[in-house]
Amino acid sequence: MKIALDAMGGDHAPKEIVLGALDALQKYEMLDKIYLVGQRDKIEAELSQNNGLQHAKIEIVEASEVIEMADHPANAYRRKKDASITVATRLVKEGTADAVVSAGSTGGQMVAALFGLGRIKGVSRPAIGCMIPSLTGGKLLVDAGANTNVDVDNLVQFAQMGSIYMNCVMGMTAPKVGLINNGSEETKGSELTQAAYQRLQELPDLNFIGNIEGRDVPAGVADVMTCDGFTGNVVLKTMEGMGKVIMTMLEQEVMASARCKAGAVLMKPALRSLKHKMDYAEYGGAPLLGVNGVSVVCHGSSKAKAISKAIEVACHCCESKFVEKIKGNFEQQREK
Prior knowledge:
Layout: E1 2-6, H1 15-27, E2 33-38, H2 40-49, E3 58-62, H3 73-79, H4 84-93, E4 99-102, H5 106-116, E5 127-132, E6 139-142, H6 152-168, E7 176-180, H7 191-201, E8 207-212, H8 216-219, E9 224-226, H9 229-254, H10 258-277, E10 285-289, E11 294-298, H11 304-320, H12 322-335
Parallel strand pairs: 1-2, 1-4, 2-3, 4-11, 6-9, 7-8, 7-9
Antiparallel strand pairs: 5-6, 5-10, 10-11
Helix pairs in contact: 1-11, 3-5, 4-5, 6-7, 9-10
């Protein structure tokens, strides 16, 4: 497996990106090569500090520019022809790499994927499929921020692609699909969500369980949770924020008295496990569903652990051939 890694993308690039690449190469035997794409001098400096300069499975691919978080994605893509995410995506398009991974501008990565890899035929809009923690394990949120304005067709396709991803990559049989809404009843929500509900329940190959409310998201009621990108991003960021708040409040309560400190010693393994389950880094990256290739989006603040896990996610996406299975699904729909 060969991965094109945007070494300049993210708040902690290139240091944490390089460390993540080295960690992945140590952990995952399926990796044949990691292409570190970006400014050679900066990448070499980080590799040199971590004894990775001569690593047989690392190759540096020069890219002189970076699409910054503040850049307008489409304008930056046209203006910065040698941007690291553009060059990394091109490696996948050309067949040099099997997948691209980046913690840089999500908009920049989406534009690079759309123009560099193209959409799967029949997919109206690609979406971000983000794994989030719940009481019953990791669940997929689609869309997590790519499309703030959607129509019924978009929501239906998000659900279908999410279901295929959870089946192929996560090994779930008939994953449960829920539509995020402001009530569980069929008649709840806007005209958009009511129409989407009707369409989703008519799909014979989709295990649609109906509407789910906000409280059902962390409870893990559905395996795939479908919504527009605005709602999905708010859900995602709220859960991330609440996770940090809960851990901070626990720490404050533990330090409040000697009795609590003593109890915390006994609770330490459980608290460590809780922190582990709520850590976004454990889920690595979020694939762009609907583009004609594997492109994995990482959190902008990702450090080495998250980058390493994202590389693993990219490998699993390639091995499962979920892109090909999404293609096959939409081809069958066109033939009907």
